[in-house]
């Protein structure tokens, strides 16, 4: 094999290795600092979730632990005049979300801990988090948010509160993102 070709192949392998190590490390860092893993909501149920939120042009949608911001992207796709805010602590999902939302001025992504985030402007809050994380988060949501604010939780219940609606999401045999529970502050 030609020497130049060997060097080129070696460089490609090196780049793949470096990218793999960086992504792997970022995932390990995320797992260490986040309170829930990066498991995105299934793409096929996003539209159904947004439709359940009954958004208007005045809506301000928060996704606490927004991952790659897919829920917010679908929300502004269906309702271009809303404002959307995503909060994400993991470096990989955060930067992925930043890239994916770069053309949307009405989506703001914050690299923050959800427990130290001001949610007082939210009209709708989307959660795809573990029940114990939701439980820890609820006091600050209830303290900050105006009565009537909608909390939409994917799959998991909000302990101690009655949902006003439970929606079975379109299911193609998937084990996750199966239902949406809607609560009102
Ligand atoms: C199950 S994923 C849901 C992602 C996104 N909401 C979706 O539905 O596609 C949970 C996300 O919350 C993030 N997260 C977990 N704990 C967090 C915290 N304390 N502050 C901010 N983000 C957090 C994780 O990094 C992860 O991306």
Give a topology summary.
Layout: H1 3-33, H2 46-52, E1 60-64, H3 70-78, E2 83-87, H4 91-100, E3 107-110, E4 124-127, H5 131-144, E5 150-154, E6 165-168, E7 179-184
The protein binds S-adenosylmethionine.
S-adenosylmethionine (SAM) binds next to α3.
Task: Give a written overview of the molecule.
The chain is α/β, with parallel strands linked by helices. Helix content is about 40%, strand content about 20%. It has two domains: about 1-35; about 45-185, Rossmann fold (3-Layer(aba) Sandwich). It contains five helices and seven strands. It has a seven-stranded mixed beta sheet with strand order 3-2-1-4-5-7-6, with helices on one face. Helix 2 crosses helix 3 (about 70-80). The longest helix has about 30 residues, at about 5-35. The relative contact order is 0.14.
Quick summary:
By secondary structure, the protein is α/β, with parallel strands linked by helices. The chain has helices spanning 3-33, 46-52, 70-78, 91-100, 131-144, and strands at residues 60-64, 83-87, 107-110, 124-127, 150-154, 165-168, 179-184. The protein is built from 5 helices and 7 strands.
């Amino acid at each position: 094999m030609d020497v130049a070709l060997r060097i080129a192949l070696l460089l490609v392998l090196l780049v793949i290795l470096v990218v793999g190590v960086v992504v792997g490390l970022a995932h390990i860092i995320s797992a260490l600092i986040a309170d829930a893993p990066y498991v995105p909501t299934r793409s096929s149920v996003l539209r159904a979730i947004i439709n359940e939120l009954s958004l208007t042009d005045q809506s301000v949608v928060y996704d606490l632990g927004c991952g790659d911001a897919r829920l917010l992207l679908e929300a502004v796709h269906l309702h271009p005049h809303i404002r959307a805010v995503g909060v994400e602590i993991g470096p990989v999902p955060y930067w992925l979300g930043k890239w994916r939302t770069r053309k949307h001025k009405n989506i703001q992504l914050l690299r923050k801990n959800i427990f130290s985030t001001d949610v007082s402007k939210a009209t709708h809050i989307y959660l795809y988090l573990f029940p114990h994380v939701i439980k820890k988060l609820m006091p600050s949501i209830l303290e900050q948010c105006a009565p009537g604010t909608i909390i939409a939780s994917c799959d998991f219940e909000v302990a101690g509160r009655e949902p006003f609606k439970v929606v079975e999401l379109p299911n193609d045999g998937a084990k996750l993102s199966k239902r949406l529970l809607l609560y009102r502050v």
